[in-house]
Fold these 3 entries.
Entry 1:
Amino acid sequence: MSISYDAESRVFRLETQNTTYQMQIGPVGHLLHLYYGRPVPDALDYRLLPRDCGFSPNPYDLREHRGWSLDTLPQEYSSADNGDFRCPSIDLRTASGFRGTDLRYAGHEIQKGKYTLEGLPSAFDREDGCETLSITLKDEAAGVAVELLYGVFPRQNVITRAARITNGGVEALWLNRAASACLDLPFGSWELMHFHGRHCMERQPERAPLIHGVQTISSSRGASSHQHNPFVILCAPETTEDTGSCFGVMPVYSGGHFTDVELDQSGAVRLVTGISDAGFSWKLDPGETFTTPEVLFTYTHQGLTHLSHTFHRFLRQNLCRSKFASAARPVLINSWEAAYFDFDADLILTIAEGAKELGADLLVLDDGWFGRRNHDKAGLGDWYVNEEKLPGGLEPLIRKVNDLGLQFGLWVEPEMVNEDSDLYRAHPDWALRVPGRKPAVSRDQLVLDLSRPEVADWIYETIASLLRDYHIQYIKWDMNRHLSDVFSRDIPADRQGEVSHRWVLGLYSILERLTTEFPDVLLEGCAGGGGRFDAGMLAYCPQIWCSDNTDAYSRLAIQHGTSYGYPASAVGAHVSASPNHQTGRRTPLGSRGAVAMAGMLGYELDPGKLTEEERLEIRQQIRDYREFAPLVQLGDHYRLGENAWMFVSEKRDRALVTVTVPAPEGNPRPLHIRLKGLNPEGRYQIRRMTYFGCALQPEPLQGTWSGAALLYGGLTLPQLFGDLPGAQLLLEQTEAL
Ligand code: GLA
């Protein structure tokens, strides 16, 4: 049993292999957080010594106990305006106009298996021991019931949380904040690590001590965003990659989000996370229930790498439903940077022939194949083929691509519309817009109102027909602007605050139907690169285009930041032309290949423009990658600093090590690297070693070493001269010592 309740102490205990989570029902029914951390056998209620710190009110029925205040005690789901002045998890307005709730325990249930969330992606059990705890809290005055859900995955060391909020009263109420979860850490010193960025430079790690007050990581853009990824870490100041305490918080949501982290007057930390409350207001009529998105929590005392491994495995095995989460991925070639909008069937076929010769598996026809889409000002929404570019339609093109022995993939951006499109001319009201005002445009496009079922149904039907009518084995699902003018025509005024979230629910309903009906189609998410790189999308899309920036040097930082939360199996990574189209930088083909091999490899260039030598090199890259791919996709990813990494097989008998030197110096210090993840008792041989990007080719290292020597002593590489030079080593265990 991973969940237990002791009626005498009124303590709940959630146990995973490496963690204990405890909470307790307080003297008058408040649900108090006791502990989340390394396993401990006893109840930790002694830690909550009540103390009067002044100006912290007491619940009326505990007014004789001045020290007993919701403002100082750690809670499982904090309320507004009830004497706790810290960040609330729930903030509502009743029909009579009051705001606060005072949530008290009303019952609980423990069940085998994992709960599901209506209309939302969530983690699933693989029949290996997940249990669900549901605790109901009630506030009689507001007539509201909150069901707190906990999914405990003992082997995976993950606890999932979500909440269902029901209006049990007789009048409507409005939720202005409905967080997924609250985590109160009454003791300890914590730093916040989060992943900010911008288009073409996503998920840059930033770590800083907390300051008193509230720090908020959020997106009010209707998407999880390039700017602030929803994934955050709280870690002790001394935490490194390999040691130290850290909590990972991974929302399973693709829309606007917030995470408030508050360092309060007593030095306690509260983290509250959920749907963005910018403009959010959800009306609950009597009897109605609102379900929050899920959030995944993990804790480890073994440092950031261990935290990353937990989420990498969990997202692959317990969140992504696609068979491609573990099945081999095709090496693809994408037409975007090869041709942009300027192509015809002959050019695409020439690219396909070139791709086949290089050894790729799949050709992706990117933007520009439909409507009057000759630039980004027109055509979005018109998902029928542009016969001027592709005479005879998609069918003959796909047949010819298939005849070459390649699979065929297609780009779509179904959530959007250009004003200059037949769809917009037929349905101008389908776009989000505020009455009486022209909407803000972004990339010349408007956002379709996915909160309306008829619009969501139309999108589903349109994409499903493409998949039914043509032999399409891959879809790149793009989203190239954020939401503004969020007003939906068919919803009453007092429900307009629901539109952003209903929009995301509309998106999920489309993806749910499509992935159920077409399980053999590989879906790659995209939002101007990695603008919607989140666990919500990963439930449907086993891989996501990591960034529109394909420069190998920039990708080092982007992929490094991404790896804290997300597995390499989720990272779409392409080799593109040099000089790079986003930065103008020249990098050697070998360096571009080595960096892209840290994800799901593809190419995004015109093979016709390659020299014979480059073609040979790419053929070799693809051959090498086929050998490495299982390690990259399913192995454990270790960060060896910011510019080096390795993937180690589950049995620890194979490893792929990549070291890069982004800024070679004259007379450099020795390039020394200690490996990770190997079996100290094994012996390893360098089965293959290649240098890339080197102006002078050093002698490859050869030999066999004990795992201990490589882990504790490390390897010293020769000086590497060149532009972004580096080395790639494939290690194999020869025997146990
Ligand atoms: C976005 C994507 C690119 C490409 C273009 C096409 O920017 O991230 O990869 O598909 O759209 O317009």
Entry 2:
Amino acid sequence: MATSQRSAVYPGSFDPLTNGHVDIIRRGAGLFDRIVVAILVNEQKTPMFTTDERVAMVREAFAGEPSVGVETFDGLLVEFAARHGASAIVRGLRAVSDFEYEFQMALMNRRLDARVETVFMMPAAEYSYISSRLVKEVVMLGGTVTGLVPEAVERRLHTRRARA
Ligand code: PNS
């Protein structure tokens, strides 16, 4: 019997990758044959890490896991998903406060391309309060984020603080 590969995209800014993201990627990798982390290139935002650095952080965290890919994109997410043959967009839901924005995006994406389904996943409760924004704030103010981000990301955050 022929089997078809199921791919998903997991889009976001990932500035930087957190253990909440890692948790969702692993859950996605358990559901899909391939999951592509899609890093948005947004000229309007000034990220802490360059696009190349954000790609490298995902590569470092998922080295040796061929079912997890990483790419950058601009333009419409549904077009990126179609180019990669992805049937689903994975998004993490941490709390009810995430829901309204996510609901709007999911329905807009469905309107743009009804072939792509949005799949929401909850991270482990221990990561439910983590955001890239808070992680950056804590490090820049001298706090520790050990256990909240991959070790390689933590090192990069401290290097960035030392240079600031
Ligand atoms: O992690 P973030 O920053 O909340 O991710 C937002 C992201 C990248 C998922 C969203 O901005 C996005 O999909 N941008 C691509 C532009 C697009 O397709 N817009 C129309 C559909 S809402």
Entry 3:
Amino acid sequence: MDGSAISAILAQGLPALGIDEGCIPQLVEFSRLLLEKNQVMNLTAITDPRDVATLHLLDSLAVAAAGDLNGKSVIDVGTGAGFPGMPLAIAVPGIRMTLLDSLGKRVAFLEETCRALGLQNVTCVHGRAEEFAAAHREGYDVAVSRAVAALPVLCELCLPLVKVGGLFLAMKSSHSGEETEQAAKAISLLGGKLESVTDYSIPTTDITHRVLTIRKLSPTPKKYPRRFAQIKKQPLGAPGA
Ligand code: SAM
């Protein structure tokens, strides 16, 4: 992979996010490892380096503007190939990142990649969010998640992991209004409050995405999260849940 296209896009896009350009070499190396491994396992459908720079790296880093993540403990729920967690772990000073995914092969890739990049601030966990919550309830300042589940389901996976006073940052499409309305009951039952809905442009593109900022105001009742089959069958707020 020729990293020069990625470097050039990042050099143009990072200042708009208030992120220091010193992280560019590590972000380029992460992209190289991702695309190399993607040839032998399914990590991402995005394979053009310019798209990796915008749709993966800059999109992930845009979430840093939604909450002050410096020095915070953050969990990325359903991180897949490491989005948004890996770019945040590389670029945000003092962040302590946990990357959680239910697919062992993806977690093995992330462990290998963290070793190769010398990242000391990342913990990779193979597990399901609703099970991980049993031992790590209210253990994180911030939970982030992108492209994992519809918001009513996602809130039950993520909010139990957030400390009271902390944040859940849900990365969504700019057409997620209906999904957000459907999640109102779930957010409140789980101890949260929707604080803001912010549309952002991915720097260097005309693509708009959205981040929902949900504040945890009170402890999540012990009966949540339920087992995944139940969460999926009757998302909180749906009739009968
Ligand atoms: N967040 C990444 C991104 O935006 O590129 C990956 C998105 S991928 C479509 C969804 C990922 O969520 C998959 O890797 C899947 O294994 C993981 N996942 C789904 N449900 C999960 C759960 N309950 N706990 C942990 N990981 C989960």
